[in-house]
Amino acid sequence: VQLVQSGAELRNPGASVKVSCKASGYTFTSYYIDWVRQAPGQGLEWMGRISPEDNDRKYAQKFQGRVTFTQDATTSTAYVELSSLRSEDTAVYYCTTGRAWGQGTQVTVSS
Asked: In this structure, what are the phi and psi dihedrals at residue 103, rounded to the nearest 5 degrees?
């Protein structure tokens, strides 16, 4: 099982960012994809999850209205898009099935 994420991103405050997570080594629709982030000096923060099987999505209350999970089963890829970025969104973003983790994507929000 392998999850490979897209590369680091630098955004201005107010912009949006979209991070991808490409899965391989298993049937993509078998497991939820959870998105988690870790800000500098902070613990892991759960953002929510998407089911590639039926596209069911759950969002953490904190991110409601600002985050969108999507997936493309034809390419076994999940995406997280975060809008209205602010400096506090600077973090490493991870996708995980629980059994495997992506390598993380650094998102930096700075003017």
From this structure: -80, -10
